[in-house]
Amino acid sequence: TTTVRWNYGTSGNVLVTIAQEMGYFEDEGITLEIVYGTENADAMQLLSSGKVDVVSNAGTSNPLQQIASGVDLTVFGGHMVQGCMPVVARAGTEWNGVEDLIGKKFACNPAYFAFTGAVMELGYEDPLSAVDWVTYDSYNDALAAVVKGEVDYALMGTGQNYAVNNMKDVEIVTYQGDVMPNYSCCRLVAQTDFVKNNPNTIKAILRALIRAQQYYEANKEECVKLQAKSIGTTEEYVSAYMLNDHYIVHVDPLRNSIVRAWGILDKTGFLSEQAKEVDINDHINTVLYENALKEAKEKYGSEDPEFYDRMMKFYEENDL
User: Fold this and answer.
1) For residues 185, 11, 47 and 20, what is the CA-based torsion angle, rounded to 10 degrees?
2) CA distances from 13 to 62, 128, 174, 200, 209 (A)
3) Kind and range of the H or E element at 187?
4) What's the sign of the alpha-carbon dihedral 290, 262, 138, 142?
5) Which label site among 58, 114, 205, 304 has the fewest CB atoms less than 10 Å from its CB?
6) pLDDT tens digits along 22-50
7) How far apart are CA 190 and CA 72, in angstroms?
8) For 78, what's the count of Cα atoms within 13 Å in the CB-facing half-sphere?
9) Would you give the DSSP letter of residue 155?
10) Bigger pLDDT: 143 or 39?
């Protein structure tokens, strides 16, 4: 396959943007056909129905829940290791750690496993009852609830950083990445048959994105401009999250974090009963990424040896 139907939602994907702008996909003989969906659920429906080949921005819990329900998907890479997702509260609110959520109203979907996992690490076997989880239809509604005092804390999306940073009555108390480092945000997912039938296409995609990551890490200011143009917004909006250290993009599949997420979602009841019969490792392909990384290093490693050494070390720490 040389034409790949790709969904990355409305928030864009900086590595895809770079790979397209710099000609890395073209170098690999890959043409992307972008298929838009407005919500994560739309992306999963597009993927499971075969209307797209790759989804890159639908998080981790969504694909895992699909796999648990019997949809045969494979994670073969990543987009964001951590989104820059702040937890906000009214100005002046004290924050000592996750323990401050206990018994409080927290505007956050408990399927966000970083928080339920962190609460369990405190010793609470049932994190769903230890915190008063309140779910809203949008981050803006959750933010309004904080302002009105209807909830104590609220989790925001990466795209809310600019707005929150410019509010006087609300402040950021922590980030999801501080609560659970490398929690696994957005994964690269495809139907398992697509991965099995098109290994060279998958490796070509990964090589292009690895080169894009190298460019991103060396040229973040320039990438802010590229991404702002790509998603039709201001550079100030993009800078608010992209230049924040909590925002981490990486092509690595992140096997260990996915396995951890699967366990948390299972313990908290967010996976179907069929999950007991599924070995999540069967739905994570790290071999194609490892080979793509070796091939990219062999061909482009001299351009930035330290980058490729870091990539290999990260793979060894997070996938083996």
Assistant:
1) -100
2) 18, 32, 24, 22, 11
3) strand 186-191
4) negative
5) 304
6) 999 999 999 999 998 776 668 999 999 99
7) 9
8) 30
9) E
10) 143
Q: Is residue 188 very low, low, confident or very high in pLDDT (cuts 50, 70, 90)?
A: very high
> Which of 78, 25, 22, 72 is closest to 55 using CA atoms?
78
Residue position matching structure tokens 């890490």? 217
- CA dist., res. 11 & res. 59, Å (int): 12
DSSP β-bridge partners for residue 31: 3
Instruction: Report how far apart, in Å, the C-alpha atoms of 286 and of each of 76, 78, 290, 315 are.
Output: 6, 11, 6, 9
Q: Hey, is 30 helix, strand or coil?
A: coil
Closest of 279, 78, 275, 266 to residue 189, by C-alpha: 78
DSSP 8-state code for residue 284? B
* pLDDT tens digits along 81-130: 999 999 999 999 999 999 999 999 999 999 999 999 999 999 999 999 99
How many Cα atoms occupy the beta-carbon half-sphere of 92 within 13 Å?
4
Helix (H/G/I), strand (E/B), else coil: 300: helix
Q: Which amino acid is at 257?
A: S
The residue among 180, 224, 217 whose CA lies nearest residue 310 is: 217
> Rounded to an integer, what distance in angstroms lies between the CA atom of residue 289 and that of residue 298?
14
pTM, entire model:
0.95
- CA dist., res. 57 & res. 7, Å (int): 8
The strand pairing partners of 134, in sequence order, are 107
- Contact (Cβ atoms closer than 8 angstroms) between residue 54 and residue 4: yes
Strand 248-249 versus strand 73-82 pairing type? antiparallel
Q: What are the residues whose beta carbons fall under 8 Å from the beta carbon of 123, sequence distance 6 or more?
A: none
Taking CA atoms, 242 is separated from 62, 72, 83, 308, in Å, by: 24, 33, 9, 22
Express each pLDDT in 216-261 by its tens digit: 999 999 999 999 999 999 999 999 999 999 999 999 999 999 999 9
